[in-house]
Amino acid sequence: MPCPRHALPCAVPPHILERIVRNGTEEQRSRALSTLLQDTSHRTIRVHNALMRSTRRGAVPPRPAPETGPRRTVSDAGGTEILPGAMVREEGGAAIDDAAVNEAYDGLGSTFAFYSDVLGRSSIDDEGMALLATVHYGDHYENAFWNGRQMVFGDGDGELFKRFTASLDIIGHELTHGVTEDEAALMYVNQSGALNESISDVFGSLVKQYVRGQTAEQADWLIGDELLTDAVQGVALRSMKAPGTAYDDPVLGDDIQPDHMDRYVRMTADNGGVHINSGIPNKAFYLAATALGGYAWEKAGRIWYETLRAPQIRPNTTFRAFASVTVHQAGLLFGADARKAVSEAWQAVGIVVRAAGQVSAAGQVSAAGQVSAAG
Q: What general EC class does the enzyme of this chain belong to (predicted)?
């Protein structure tokens, strides 16, 4: 089955769901197909919501300083596709006898705390935006997504995927789509779309590392490692440390994420491979974070965040342009050693940033320092 023309920023990429449609049991195929069809509609809603927020932001004067602390509301769709569903827990409310509700509530709080405590950001929009989530969405819906206004979580099919609230890095990933939308509005296509996905993986992983108190060396750098059931031959949806190694399963297929520009995938499906080619900047961040050492959010995370906010980042920003700004920000924030570490991380995945800040896809560097494109 062909991929929907427009991909949705969501936890499970469309190419995995397509493989389930081809390779799964009749019931697995039916649920994956249903998820794919719903995801196409949700993307339209997300684009509409983003445009509405952008219009309001341009027309309304800045609001007063926001209240401190998150404002969380978790609702229960009860297996329907009606949003937001019945409210079951709100800010300050006690935990209830529903693991998905409590996981969503805690995940929203952990993501808010990370952005607030580490980056000085007040919620998704930096203006104290309320954090809303709906759990138990759909009939065995096999995904989680940010629709421009709120988080939505399915319960998975129980055969291949567990409930999606179980993964903190997935919650951080999806909420970060809202941050990226607010700061840079990266187009969800080709390299800018892959950067959009990668930035969500970066900060989703950092939220998990922050909560666990892990250094860059201690972290697993896996995305969605809590989601796969024991029936799946794999460890996660993606690996930032080793893109292309997260799973190799008869139903899900093999992990096709590249880790270098030499293996960049040119395709029309998945909006130009946004969930696939994100492996390249993911690997660059992992290499930069481990080279800089310590807690990844302190240096590498700050560099990537300030890059996202930099005026040089445009909606159609490419890997090369983004790499150049990260190297510049590294030097501004942490000096020459950090600049060198970040530059070498990008070079290792096939993006060379030259001394003057110009960037080229990696090829052979001549004695004169000129770079020939190889992707």
A: hydrolase
